[in-house]
Specification:
By secondary structure, this protein is of the alpha/beta class. It is built from 14 helices and 19 strands. InterPro entries: THDP-binding, Transketo_C/PFOR_II, Transketolase-like_Pyr-bd, Transketolase_C.
């Protein structure tokens, strides 16, 4: 059994644990990496293991995560464990270190650290000019961010909730998406607009909106949705480096999802889907939180003899039709699972794209499972009725494969 001792504790090289041989080093003598929230684990055989202190373990009850086979196997994997919001912050911090033109603006992003702590500690490190707290005026600071992008900066605009960015819809559509075109290419708009969205846990209608369909029709805008700590960091870095305006959708119920990610630098493509589970019988296309509902349903489907192929499309605009098309040509059946609303949603656009490009490969009509076209109720039971559940996914696959 391991005994946890404070960060400034060191143990002599004795094989047997002896508290009298426990020596304390001055905190001033520790390296920077040791001082930065760390501790030592002193094992019963007297060996000392340096550990980095992470945030307390939080579990998102709203998603079905794949349990590790054993703690030992997880610990042996290379890399480091991060919660999704920490992965976003790590990607943002790496880009701010790399490029001095990267800056952040939004409500409470500075010394408060953001509504979900994605920007925690950045104001102290980079100062108030690069991490700018703004008034509660989405149209104003979004417009300011677009202007900053026109002059050569790379701003990240955080909406405390994506629903609030509807107040800046004019700036996003008429300025952010159009200025590169209307200026004849004289201006580039390398801006990232990001924040929490999706159906939460009894947050009420105004805080549980699915806004992907609102923004997908704006010309000149790219849209991506993260679903794991790995792709959250990679997509954040890619969005910041892009010369195009990018909207990064984060789900409010995935911030506390934990995953081990590589220590070395990596960047995800903004236009590529992710093959989550190869299969033969049906292609299931999904993104964001619904990825976990689909994977939960996949366990049941496998037990019933089905072999679903699961793809996290990630890029909501444009679609990765190469990956999607290859899957359709293999399985000949498509199920789309989304949290967006049914009318005019991502699923409707995806259905149209697949029908237009791969209709000859389909052996059955495309089925699209979407949220109900109603404002999200506050009552928990009614809220669940508006969002696709794993049992519905199982039933839809059985219907498709008949």
């Amino acid at each position: 059994m391991a005994t946890i001792v404070g960060a400034a504790t060191a143990l002599s090289a004795s094989k047997s644990f002896n508290s009298r041989k426990l020596h304390l080093r001055s905190r001033r003598s520790l390296s920077v990496s040791e001082r930065k929230g760390s501790f030592l684990v002193v094992r019963s055989d007297g060996s000392v293991v340096h550990k980095a202190h992470r945030a307390q373990k939080l579990i998102a009850n709203a998603v079905a995560t794949k349990a590790d086979s054993s703690a030992a196997s997880t610990a042996s994997k290379p890399g480091h464990e991060l919660l999704l919001f920490e992965a976003l912050r790590e990607g943002l911090e790496e880009e701010m270190d790399r490029d001095p033109t990267v800056c952040v603006m939004g409500e409470d992003v500075g010394h408060y650290g953001g509504s979900y702590k994605v920007t925690k500690g950045l104001a102290t490190k980079y100062g108030d000019l690069r991490v700018l707290d703004t008034p509660i005026a989405e149209n104003s600071f979004t417009g300011m961010g677009i202007g900053a992008a026109m002059t050569g900066l790379r701003p990240i605009v955080e909406g405390m909730n994506m629903g609030f960015l509807l107040l800046a819809f004019n700036q996003i559509s008429n300025n952010c998406g159009m200025l590169h075109y209307t200026s004849g290419g004289q201006f580039k708009i390398p801006i990232v607009i990001r924040g929490p969205g999706g159906v939460g846990r009894q947050l009420g209608a105004e805080h549980s909106q699915r806004l992907e369909s609102y923004f997908q029709s704006i010309p000149g805008i790219q849209m991506v949705a993260c679903s794991t700590p790995y792709n959250a960091k990679g997509l954040m870095k890619a969005a910041i480096r892009s010369e195009n305006p990018v909207i990064l959708f984060e789900h409010v119920l995935l911030y506390n999802l934990k995953e081990r990610i590589p220590d070395e630098e990596y960047v995800c493509s903004l236009e590529e889907a992710e093959m989550v589970r190869p299969g033969e019988h049906v292609t299931i296309l999904t993104y964001s939180r619904m990825r976990y509902h689909v994977m939960q349903a996949a366990k049941t489907l496998v037990n019933k003899g089905y072999d679903p192929e699961v793809i996290d499309i990630r890029s909501l605009k444009p679609f990765d039709l190469h990956t999607i098309g290859n899957s359709v040509k293999k399985t000949h059946r498509v199920l789309i699972v989304e949290e967006c609303m049914r009318t005019g949603g991502i699923g409707a656009s995806l259905t149209a794209a697949i029908t237009e490009n791969f209709n000859d490969y389909l052996d059955a009509p495309i089925i699209c499972l979407s949220s109900q076209d109603v404002p999200t109720p506050y009552a928990g039971t009614l809220e669940e009725w508006t969002v696709v559940q794993p049992a519905q996914i199982v039933t839809a696959v059985e219907q498709l494969c008949q």
